[in-house]
Amino acid sequence: MYFLRIEKLKDVMAERPLTDRQALPYLAVTIGLFTLAAFPVEPANGPAVVSVVISTAITVLGAIYVYRRNGGPNGQEFLSRYFAIGWVVALRVIVVCVGPLALFYIMLGAAGHDSDTTQWYEVPIYALLEVAIWWRVGHHTSELAARTEKGE
Predict the structure, then answer these.
(1) Cβ neighbours of 99 (radius 10 Å)
(2) Where are the alpha helices (DSSP H) in the chain?
(3) Which of 12, 41, 60, 145 is most buried per CB count within 10 Å?
(4) pLDDT in tens, 127-151
(5) Is 72 left (phi over 0), alpha (psi -120 to 50) or beta?
(6) Integer-rounded Cα radius of gyration of the chain
(7) What is the pTM of this model?
(8) Which residues of 62-84 are buried (b: 16+ CB within 10 A; e: fewer)?
């Protein structure tokens, strides 16, 4: 299982599709993280509800986007590519964003804006992060699809 090395993962997948056994850990981790994310950690408020609606729309549109970047109905190995590449891209985005987001929340807390509920300013921040993840998954999936189409 690859964690941060997207090029190595694409090299392996360009040579041969992942077997179901190789794709299984990516599926399991993704489902586990989605399940954890579904647990409410705060009371639902307006921004939280709006955030869930936006996130759901981004997820549906993002999946369609990645499917099309994979070649649409002529694409190959969509699910294994999606889960494996999606895992690595999401992990990379998290690694890059943890520090700045932690600093952002520390600064808000120091300024007295600490809150236990979702705030309106958080909605576009997390929506943009989700869009960035889908965009990069689509980019890497498209590159891989082009490589396997050429027989690289």
Answers:
(1) 9
(2) 6-15, 20-38, 46-69, 78-110, 122-150
(3) 145
(4) 999 999 999 999 999 999 999 887 6
(5) left
(6) 17
(7) 0.77
(8) bbebbbebbbeeebebbebbbbb
